[in-house]
Amino acid sequence: MTPTPVCIHLVHGESTSRLQMLPDTGADVTVIGMRHLQMLHIPLSSLQPLPSTTMLTADGSVMTPAVGCFYATLRLHGKSCTAKIQVHEGIQTPLLSYGHCMELAIISPAFPKPLLEVKHVNRCTEMTLPSTTSPSAARAHFLREFSDMLLSKADLK
């Protein structure tokens, strides 16, 4: 289910603006696009540089490098937080990070944290299989290695 955008009051300097942002509990950072930066009347020259790091999107593709970032106060229903907001080209919908969703009470404290690192373990790569050329030798090997999981015709009677 796609979350519904929420209307966030964004305070930067002396001005307050409203911005529809999509809560993204899988996001590590809060991001907006260049168009949103212009709507907020924040000059490009006032952005702070960010270190060049590779960031991935939800589908695993590489995100365009950040143009820069700025700090603002985000407010929603009496809750507020200070946010570092990254500006990226090509962002169509502003995204609110998991941390900011928590601070603004959009999600419950019981909401599970996203996995920050996934380690894939493939036991098959650790096993060395003997080099066999005959089907009967391969069959014998599998029956020996996996006897606890394989059934024979006799087991079915």
Automatic annotation (TrEMBL):
Domain Peptidase A2: 19-32
Organism: Chionoecetes opilio (Atlantic snow crab)
Record carries keyword Hydrolase: yes
Protein name: Peptidase A2 domain-containing protein
Keywords carried by this UniProt record: Hydrolase
GO molecular function, one term: aspartic-type endopeptidase activity
Source species, domain of life: Eukaryota
PROSITE patterns: ASP_PROT_RETROV
SUPFAM superfamilies: Acid proteases
Any GO BP annotation: proteolysis
